Fold this protein.
Amino acid sequence: MNLLSPLEKVKGVGIKTGEQFAAVGINTVGDLIRFLPRVHEDFSHVTRIADIAPGKATIKARCDAIFTRPVRRGLRITTATLADESGKLQAVWFNQPYRETQLKSGEEFFFSGEFEFNYNRYQLTNPSAEKVSEMPVQTDRLLPVYRAVKGLKTTLVRKILSELKPLITMLPESLPESIVKNEKLLNRAQAYVAMHFPKTPVDVEKARERLAFEELFELLLASQLNRQENAKLEGWHIPFNQQVVKDFVSQLPFALTGAQRVAAWEILQDFEKAVPMNRLLQGDVGSGKTVVAGLAARQAAHEGFQTALMAPTEILASQHAETLQKLLSPFGVQVGLLTGSVKGTARKTLYAAIKNGDVQVVVGTHALIQETVIFHKLGFVVIDEQHRFGVKQRQELLKKAVHMPHLLAMTATPIPRSLALTVYGELDISILNELPKGRKPIKTKIWSPNSRAQLYGLVEEELIAGRQAYVICSLIDNNPDNELKSVQAEYKKLQNSVFKHRTIGLLHGKLKSDEKEAVMARFAAGELDILVSTTVVEVGVDVPNATAMIIEDADRFGLSQLHQLRGRVGRSSHQSYCYLVTSTSAKPSERLREVEKSNDGFYLAEVDLKLRGPGEIYGRAQHGALNLQIATLGDTKLIKRAQEAAKAFVASGAELLPYKELEQQVRYYQRLTTLN
Ligand code: ADP
Ligand code: MG
């Protein structure tokens, strides 16, 4: 028997059990060994009911009586009376009606949970329950609890794992021995034994450290290797021309911020190297990333290179095209816009101009890569809001050049440092941590839906002063099942009542792209006072005269998303306001309060990472596949250690070949995260 043996080979696993495991993706012995406990319950300290005190507690008791009652839709409460020889207490579970069947047998159980004051009495809330007779003896009462996916019983998992214990004890090491030794890690066999059959909490801690280290090491080694491979590529040499840059800067209507200067300088230096640039430009909303890209594109064009800029939406692409046109046309640089709505002859003409080099800067959406666009001499690729693009799309775009073009990925969703190191470890990073001069921090306020009239008064004041406003809603059509404001209903309501005397525009994803653009253009030109919109304005849209934003049902949005939305105002020297209207008058969530308190995107990203985890924020595709089981991206210390080890491994010239499993995993991550 080995790790690849089918689970049915194990004693006690019949076809039926095998199928049950297969349903949750556990097919082999190795899969089961890697199926780690969700938590470890500590049953080593049992308290007599008579002695119980508030806080975490474990008791050994029988269930005297148990019943479930529906409280309201979506909530059923199960209440039980638990008894040992010293006394009785009450336990409650929320939405766990199966506890009735589990506990009715009258057998003895360990119950472990929080003993707390709730609903006017002390009770044990949502305790776990473990049949005493099923407690494995060898675990010293520290019990692994496995995820109960699709009815998979934790007791069954434990039973089969104990059959496999001899095999687990002999698992060969997967990391280089020297690293295990230097980092003072448990070896692999020890780690899995400790996870599945822990003796003390310290065992579990050590095992976690070892397995998390391994995951991070694999990920970071992959990005180190990608970096190394990138360094072997030949790039375009685009020499720095001081006069060209000076001329560009001097025709700007503003002075660059210090941070913009530094970032531009870093990019221009990379252009001069023989190796293609791989750089992430991180800047909070409104920090002025576009002009930095424009400056670099100007330098590239001067040396005869084309630039491609890819944006996630048509609105954004056309806005970028317009901005770049303004910035670059004084120097005779031609800017083309290629989106799905450029059709027929116009499209053919544009293709030809890109191919023969008449157009030096091409801005577009996915159309840039989905069609047969042939570049004359593509030297520089800019990807705006890069976390929205899959790795594959970037690869497609980069394939369009003889040499690997220089790559600049721009994002306004600040990535916490820990995450930047792991997921984007192979990128160099430039940061715009400074807003243009004269910007006033946006004033953000959580607003109860009951005092809307007052709110509209405040917005009207802005409009009277000549400013414009956004109203953001989250759905297109009225859905009777919930109370979300639909943009259409909101638009009608505002137009027919409070803002009768105002010109209002309506923007949502279901509009045709030329309709969308027409609305955006009117808003940008100041012809509309108010724009009622869904989150299609979330990224990048730049209308500096807009100074007020109402976000309806703000509690339905994620933290980073709120910050992004809010970034549509505060783009000029006028004071701007953002009102977060909650869907009920209940107490606002922590998320909303954080957005109200802070304008710092980097700080909010850290908070968001803690509250929701990386998958939600940075796109499922990439992170779902990264699938870190044990390591948390918040563990900067361990990340640092793993990174040092990965760097040292690459620097020592060591080969992956002798480490079969490690190699497999690293190659997988390399394919997943490479930009080449
Ligand atoms: P983002 O980083 O969010 O993409 P943009 O590139 O859209 O920001 O720039 C936001 C606004 O700030 C634009 O209207 C731009 O013209 C303006 N801007 C950029 N840099 C400066 C600067 N140094 N001083 C003043 N305004 C600037
Ligand atoms: Mg932008």
Observations:
- The first strand starts at residue 39 and ends at 42.
